[in-house]
């Protein structure tokens, strides 16, 4: 089993943003983060999960059971529920508007295809050690832009 924790955030929204993930694989912890000078919180939340899945695929471990924990209801609900309607409706929302961040949703959908993933949500800033560490790494990423 592989455990993933992910987070993303911005200073201002939009504004400078960062993403981070922690992957526990074979009792080894891998942390990674990045940043963009002008982005949104939702883009960074999605990017964190995308980058974690890219890492897992690069390790050849996509056949493992994966648990992804995010503090983003947007990511969890989007990939487990909303995406099915979006694809069926030509990437339009229930209000017939284009889906925001479509390119990221498509990338996440492609990376998640064929993988057994359990999606979990944790309240941000609630004391979960791995979520708190991801948040720290998000800020390391944002601060690297300065």
Automatic annotation (TrEMBL):
Q: Which organism is it from?
A: Spirochaeta lutea
Q: Which protein are we looking at?
A: Ribonuclease H
Q: Which SUPFAM superfamilies match?
A: Ribonuclease H-like
**Catalytic reaction list:** Endonucleolytic cleavage to 5'-phosphomonoester
Q: Does the keyword Magnesium apply?
A: yes
**What taxonomic classification does the UniProt entry list for its organism?**
Bacteria, Pseudomonadati, Spirochaetota, Spirochaetia, Spirochaetales
Q: Which cofactor does it need?
A: Mg(2+)
Task: Give the main location.
Answer: cytoplasm
The record ties this protein, via InterPro entries, to: RNase_H, RNaseH-like_sf, RNaseH_domain, RNaseH_sf, RNaseHI
Q: Cofactor note, please?
A: Binds 1 Mg(2+) ion per subunit. May bind a second metal ion at a regulatory site, or after substrate binding.
Enzyme Commission no: 3.1.26.4
> What GO terms describe the biological role, i.e. biological process, of this protein?
DNA replication, removal of RNA primer
């Amino acid at each position: 089993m592989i455990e993933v924790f992910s987070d993303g955030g911005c200073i201002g929204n939009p504004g400078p943003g960062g993403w981070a993930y922690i992957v526990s694989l074979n009792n080894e912890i891998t942390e990674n983060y990045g940043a963009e000078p002008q982005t949104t919180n939702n883009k960074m939340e999605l990017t964190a999960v995308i980058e974690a899945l890219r890492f897992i695929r690069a390790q050849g471990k996509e056949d493992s059971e994966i648990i992804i924990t995010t503090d983003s209801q947007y990511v969890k609900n989007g990939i487990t529920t909303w995406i099915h309607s979006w694809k069926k409706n030509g990437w339009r929302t229930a209000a017939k508007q284009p889906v925001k961040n479509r390119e990221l949703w498509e990338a996440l959908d492609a990376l998640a295809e064929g993988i057994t993933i359990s999606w979990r949500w944790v309240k941000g800033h609630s004391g979960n050690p791995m979520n708190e560490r991801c948040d720290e790494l998000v800020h390391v990423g944002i601060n690297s832009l300065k």
